[in-house]
Each structure stands twice: as structure tokens, then as C-alpha cells.
Amino acid sequence: MTDNAEQLLRETTAEWGIPLSDAQIAQFQRYLDELTIWNERFNLTAIHDRKAMVRRHLLDSLWLARVWPAIPDSLIDIGSGAGFPALPLKIVYPALPVTLVEATAKKAAFLQHIIDCLNLSDVRVLNERIEVVGRNPTERERYQIVTARAVAELRVLVEYALPLLRVGGHLLAPKGRNPAAEIAAANSALQQLGGQISACLPVTIPDEEPRSLVIVTKIAPTSSRFPRAIGVPARRPL
Prior knowledge:
Layout: H1 3-15, H2 22-39, H3 50-62, E1 75-78, H4 86-92, E2 98-101, H5 105-117, E3 123-126, H6 130-134, E4 143-148, H7 154-161, E5 165-175, H8 180-185, H9 187-193, E6 195-203, E7 211-218, H10 232-235
Parallel strand pairs: 1-2, 1-4, 2-3, 4-5
Antiparallel strand pairs: 5-7, 6-7
Helix pairs in contact: 1-3, 7-9
């Protein structure tokens, strides 16, 4: 990590009340190094500048911790890709149990590689479609937090996420600057799945366009009919 990139990461997280140790900085350094190497073979990120990686991958991920009243007891990340936002959160909060769901085998292999490189414990990688995971009785209504970055529009995403949340749990969904239309379109799906919008917060990252974080709270159990079969939520949103 360049000196400027490290300074940006240290100073911004300190301002947010999430100070990082030297060991955590070293883990983030190794993470971005490995991402850069693997990205030469697989399309894991379109971002190559190290300072931009810090802003768009690390800080964008760690911002989610600002909405936690306490460290969650469980987190599952949908469509994990290169591991954002879940693995940066795991680095900062080593005791947080994390499950990563990634359907693409090469991306799942990268996730396991990073977990091994960084010696992270209590992290699982499920190389499976989210519709299958959501119908697995051992995964349903188990988690306190679901995260998902750039996976699907909100009315589709809630069908993936809410079956995994226990009542009282939260979906943290990073979105664009003004997600009002997505929120309105998701109203029917939320009613059917047992969720409600509890907040839409502005997200400000240094030198990045303003974005939003939509928080969905699960208020009632989800019918066993959901999620529907593979591909159906995206083709025929609720």
C-alpha cells in the first residue's frame, strides 16, 4: 500500500471511530496485493489504483460498521465477489462470524485464498447460488446481519436476504445517491417477505460521489415459499 493510501485508510477510519492496528493495516496491504495479482487472471475488480481501492473497497466496506450499535453475532454476505464488504469488516472485528456466498467458482477460490493468507478464523465460503442457500434449513432465519453490494435491485435483493435473517435482523444494502425509486418498487416484496425499510442513510467517502445505505429490518418470519427457484426472483420480481 502506498504511503498516501495507508494514510487515507488510517485517518479516515480513526475519524469514524474505527482505529486500525498496524497488524490490521498489514492485513489490508496483503489483501490488496493478492487482489491485484489475482485480478491479472480473473476479473475481480475494475479498480487498479491503490488509493482508489482503499476508497471504493475498504472504506466503502468499513462504513457499514458505523451503523452497528454493537458487533453482530453473525453476518452473511451475498454475492461476495472479491470479499467486499464482509472481509474488511472481519479484519477489523476478528470475532465476527462471517459466511460468504459466491456462486462463481473462481471468485469463491479467491475468497478462500484470502481467508487462508490472512489467517482468518470462523469464516465460511459457500460456493452456491443464493436461492439454494436461502432454502437450506440450516441457513434460514439464522443471521443478524446480511450484506450485499452491487448484487441486485432492492425488490430482488430482499427475496435473497430476508429468508436468511432472523426476526429483528437487518439487511445492509449499499445503493446509489437516490434510491427512492428502488425503495418504492420494493414495497410489495417487503410486505410478502416480512421486512420493512428502517433507514436510508447518506454515505460519504473522501473523494467519492455521495451514496446511500438502505437498511431493511425483518419484522416477521418469511414464508417457506421464498426464495423462489434459481433465477426466478430476478426474472419475476415480487
